[in-house]
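Question (not urgent): is this output format expected?
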Amino acid sequence: MPKLLLTLAAFLLIGGAVIQLRHEQVELRNRMANLHRDMQRGQSELWRQQLDIATYTSPSTLRNLVPQKQRETKPLDAASVNAARE
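Got this back:
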């Protein structure tokens, strides 16, 4: 009889430990899913911002925004290119 009670107690302890571990696993999966959703939202926001930048800086948009007189450019000489790099 004592062996049976000891075995039953051991099974109960092991069962409780397994239930606790499964509960932790479910909680961690939930946290992981939330973090993944947050990362996807952030990535989506970055893609939207990249699209906005590409739209606002496209050649056709810039051509329409910059007046004709400001578009007249002159070739750069080597001294001004080197000065701009510094």
